[in-house]
């Protein structure tokens, strides 16, 4: 099976659609949460995802928009975008978001939004946090989102003991998973990249070939920005899309 791994779509339909069109053949979409929040087309993103063969876990924005976590934990721009997003969604969308699971385990992969220790909120931003996270899942690999930065953390055991090493994923090159160490992998964000590269990020997992590859895709950033502007969403959220920050 080939799985398209996406995270942090954030209501950016132009980016999501560009990834769905460009990604090489896939059988299923694995979504790591934050389908909505920030972007101008939350409903379109939910509907498009639900029309595909997919699995998804909940992100902090998904549950905030559905009133399942406290909005006071968000910064002012994120709160404003979450209120607006809530106003755009049908009760059935909100119900669906609120029932997304915190964690899924599939084919040797644990899927969470933030971290396996605190799936909704924890950011894996440093090797020390990644290192501690390995105790909270049993599968060889864990897929996470939330930071919007593509990265891999590998747990290796050598003469110097157990180490957690950080790797920037190679682009467009299949990475063999057979004999690979245990890893926590972040594919990056579709709808709001924060690694200085504004292109939409995604990964492809081939469960038969046992390979994982990372990709970037251009999309009409201005189209998303124009729609955000028309809905009077916060200017900082609009500007950051051009910069990938
Ligand atoms: Zn996010």
Structural class: alpha/beta
Order of helices and strands, N to C?
A: EHEHEHHHEEHEEEEEEEHH
Which ligands does the model contain, each kind named once? zinc ion
The largest pleated sheet is described as: 6 strands, mixed
Low-confidence stretches are: none
What is the total tally of β strands?
12
Oligomeric state of the chains present here: single chain
- Strand arrangement, major sheet: 3-2-1-11-12-9
Number of helices: 8
Describe the structure.
This protein has 245 residues and is of the alpha/beta class. The chain is 29% helix and 23% strand. It is built from eight helices and twelve strands. The chain has helices at residues 13-22, 42-50, 60-65, 76-88, 91-98, 127-133, 221-230, 235-243; strands at residues 2-6, 28-31, 54-56, 104-106, 109-111, 141-143, 151-158, 161-167, 175-176, 182-186, 200-206, 211-217. A six-stranded mixed sheet has the order 3-2-1-11-12-9. The longest helix is centred in the middle third of the chain and has 13 residues, at 76-88. The chain is globular, with a radius of gyration of 17 Å. Zinc ion (ZN) binds next to loops.
SSE topology:
Layout (H helix, E strand, L loop, with lengths): L1 E5 L6 H10 L5 E4 L10 H9 L3 E3 L3 H6 L10 H13 L2 H8 L5 E3 L2 E3 L15 H7 L7 E3 L7 E8 L2 E7 L7 E2 L5 E5 L13 E7 L4 E7 L3 H10 L4 H9 L2
Parallel strand pairs: 1-2, 2-3, 5-6, 6-10
Antiparallel strand pairs: 1-11, 4-5, 7-8, 7-10, 9-12, 11-12
This protein binds zinc ion.
What's the gist of this structure?
The protein has helices spanning 13-22, 42-50, 60-65, 76-88, 91-98, 127-133, 221-230, 235-243, and strands at residues 2-6, 28-31, 54-56, 104-106, 109-111, 141-143, 151-158, 161-167, 175-176, 182-186, 200-206, 211-217.
């Amino acid at each position: 099976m080939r799985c398209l791994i996406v995270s942090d779509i954030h209501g950016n339909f132009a980016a999501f659609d560009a990834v769905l069109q460009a990604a090489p053949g896939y059988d299923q979409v694995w979504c790591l949460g934050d389908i909505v929040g920030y972007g101008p087309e939350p409903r379109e993103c939910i509907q498009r995802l639900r029309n595909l063969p997919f699995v998804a876990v909940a992100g902090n924005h998904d549950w905030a928009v559905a009133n399942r976590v406290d909005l006071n934990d968000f910064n002012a721009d994120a709160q404003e975008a979450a209120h607006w997003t809530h106003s755009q969604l049908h009760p059935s969308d909100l119900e669906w978001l609120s029932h997304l699971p915190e964690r899924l385990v599939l084919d040797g992969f644990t899927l969470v939004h933030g971290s396996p220790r605190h799936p909704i909120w924890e950011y894996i931003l440093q090797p020390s946090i990644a290192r501690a996270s390995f105790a909270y899942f049993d599968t060889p690999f864990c897929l996470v989102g939330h930071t919007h930065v593509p990265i891999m953390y590998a747990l290796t055991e050598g003469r110097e003991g157990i180490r957690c090493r950080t790797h920037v994923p190679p682009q467009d090159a299949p990475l063999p998973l057979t004999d690979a160490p245990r890893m926590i992998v972040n594919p990056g964000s579709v709808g709001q990249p924060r690694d200085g590269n504004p292109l939409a990020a995604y990964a492809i997992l081939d469960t038969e070939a046992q390979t994982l590859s990372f990709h970037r895709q251009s999309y009409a950033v201005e189209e998303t920005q124009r729609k955000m502007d028309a809905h009077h969403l916060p200017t900082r959220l609009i500007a950051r899309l051009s910069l990938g920050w």
